[in-house]
Amino acid sequence: MSIEFTTLASGSKGNSIYIGTEDTKILIDAGLSGSKIDSALNDINLSLEDIDAIFVTHEHLDHIESIGVISRKYNIPIYATEGTWNSIPERIGKILKSNKRLVYKDEGILLNDIFIHSFQVPHDAKEPVCYSVIHNNIKICVVTDIGHITRDIIENMRHCSGLVLESNHDINMVKNSDYPQVIKERILGKYGHISNETCGKLLACIMNDKLKNVFLSHLSQDNNTPELAYLTVANTLDEFGIKAEKDVNLHIAKPYGITELIKIKE
Question: Which domain holds residue 94?
Answer without folding.
Answer: 2-265
